[in-house]
Amino acid sequence: MELSAASQGTNPCPICLGPIVQESYLDTCFHKFCYNCIVQWTKVVASKQSLLPSSVKCPLCKRENYSLIRGFDGTSFERLYVNQNFGNGFFLTKAHKCRLQCYHTEPGIANAAFDVSRYWKSRKYLQSNQWLQSWLKREIQALAQDEDIEIIVHHILGVFDCFLRRNEQKHVKTPEIIREEFKALVSDAARPFIAARTNHFVDEMELFLASGLTIEAYDQVYAEYLGWNNSSASNIAAAVERSNENTPVAEGSNESTTIIPDLSIFYEYYIGSD
């Protein structure tokens, strides 16, 4: 009787045959399941193998899938890879999600909100910024969708400190040359970790430094300046397809793949959603 009732429902979960709870998709075939059902299925499959698998076959079509998509709300989603522990995923906060919006705007579109040129000409870059480390931590966490990014932040801060020491002497280089040096050094430091979004990240870091504001004030000015509004989203297949272009999964690898945030709560790509 319960089976019949579930079957009459709209697209019941193929595993439990009940209404889908916490709708989740496999990334290749896009078959839909309850989150807990497909996670348990994946764990059962993994328990029968000596090594942690990097993919799992769909219970329905048997196609190989490398990640699980959940929390798709029409504009964004969270992606969990098979070779990671689903129970220990990193969940993006509202602040992370809001920051990811900027990576779907035209780079430099908010420059007019702050005088970036003056920042370099007046040598304000030599002034200590007490909020930079916290800003970097939040930014890298959002871009990599990983909580443990301290070593990356430490690396970028070290490169920036080195840049400052090299440019303490006055009138040796023009502001334009110093600015390009900053961008080149930070780009080289960040690229191995955030890949396709590196140039935009460097622009955002420059903008935050030039603002001279606290993180909270900067976020408010940035959002108000751009006047963000909700926009219609692409369907989930299109969103994941775009993400796959920037985050290829190496077959057979047990290493977690860096997730490049072509994503935001306003635009298409993947982020966590509670």
From TrEMBL:
PROSITE patterns according to UniProt: ZF_RING_1, ZF_RING_2
Occurrences of domain RING-type (ranges): 13-62
Record carries keyword Metal-binding: yes
Keywords: Metal-binding, Zinc, Zinc-finger
Name of one Pfam family that matches: zf-C3HC4
InterPro entries linked: Znf_C3HC4_RING-type (IPR018957), Znf_RING (IPR001841), Znf_RING/FYVE/PHD (IPR013083), Znf_RING_CS (IPR017907)
One function term, GO molecular function aspect: zinc ion binding
PANTHER family: RING/U-BOX SUPERFAMILY PROTEIN, ZINC FINGER RING-TYPE DOMAIN CONTAINING PROTEIN
Protein's recorded name: RING-type domain-containing protein
Biological source species: Tripterygium wilfordii (Thunder God vine)
Species classification: Eukaryota, Viridiplantae, Streptophyta, Embryophyta, Tracheophyta
